[in-house]
Amino acid sequence: MSTINKYIDKNKKRFLDELLDLLRIPSVSADPKFAGDVKKAAKFLADRMKEAGLSKVKIHKTAGHPIVYGEKIVDKKLPTILVYGHYDVQPADPIELWDSGPFDPVIKKTKKHPKGAIFARGACDDKGQMYMHVKAFETMQQTGGVPCNVKFMIEGEEEVGSDNLEIFCRANKKLLASDVVLISDTSVIDNKTPSVTVGLRGLSYVEVEVTGPNKDLHSGVYGGGVANPVNVLCEMIASLKDKNGKIKIPDFYDDVVKLTKKEREAINSAPFSITQYKKELKIKDVMGEKGYSTIERTSTRPTLDVNGIWGGYIGEGAKTVLPSKAFAKISMRLVPNQHPDKITKLFSKHFKSIAPAGVKVEVRPHHGGFPAVTPTDTVEYKAAHLAMKDTYGKYPIPVRGGGSIPIVAMFEKVMGVKSVLMGFGLDSDDIHSPNEHYGLFNYYKGIETIPLYFKYYTELKSKK
Ligand code: BES
Ligand code: MN
Ligand code: MN
Fold this sequence. Notes:
binds manganese (II) ion; Aminopeptidase; Alpha-Beta Plaits; six-stranded mixed beta sheet; four-stranded antiparallel beta sheet; alpha/beta; 22% strand
């Protein structure tokens, strides 16, 4: 056993207990009710970072939630890895669907996690994955030192679009100067099949409001005579896609980079079982854009989805009412080279244009984010390749992910620095869903792999 593995083994329980303490803090960034807890999580993290041996640890205030920074400069001549992660989490709702409290972590065995998994909001996304880096840093510090410079930038607003992160980065370019951003906030294919994420989708997110008559009406007295905004909204949404799953917003696909046959083949050659996919989700069949595989539909193709829809009476029993208003939250996942603001504008223009005269339509943009692809022919990627080979016994497969992480494109634009997405979660870990969990195997595997990334990266970089 290497000294690194020995150290991890000896401190296993404490590494876990500390994470459990962090998971007990409900740092939900979207809900102002939890603003105090978000602060508490930042403080908790800053304290642990100091204990681990990082210098210049500081909680930087922003217009929103704070950013926690810390660094270890070994030698100015050595390369610098910037570790990014987020300590904020998604809301736990619907709470009644959790088998245990979302902020009351418990460890249970599952089929996919026979060694046990931590059940809590944020366990995988991203407290568990982010905290691996703090513990990996501690491990390096205690077993021969960190081989290159490292900076930590852990934010509290990823789940709400990272709006203040760009402002912070622009104002602190010197502080954040680095050679690569290392992020663990994605997944591996499975615990025997490592992968590195080499692409993320962008996002355009809007809320729409459809108003009919100026007040709720009796659905018998007025029903049939005026527009029902809920009916109208449903029809408008239904018209946004054709029967082949193509999005019908004019010019929506204009900037989509067409993948070559070879690229598509490579993407589709990743291990994937449609039978297992359907079984896990308890669905009879998959659905999506015609002409593309499920892997492509969920990673390299843009989408349009309703995330929530409401209006009218939704209480107990029946109330005969013709509602005055209807609402929906709609997200569009974007791929290179779609521009989130441009897509939001196209959506808005089209959505207003299809509204019948009997209703008024408002479109309110929320946060957005750019899509990103990361290269595989760099030493930054190669280091992940070698590190995962050592700990999994197999080289990782490059895959494109369907989610979004706004910093990746932003940091490249502002700082000219690219990211490596070496995540350790599983797609089945129920992030953003009830009963989110993170495997103990995955947590410790990450802590073991990260020091190897540092080692290989420093070696490869010095040869260049
Ligand atoms: N960690 C996720 C993104 C992710 C998950 C990427 C799994 C690839 C695989 C991240 O925390 C997230 O949820 N991002 C948001 C975007 C944000 C702008 C709200 C998302 O993708 O919905
Ligand atoms: Mn995340
Ligand atoms: Mn998330």
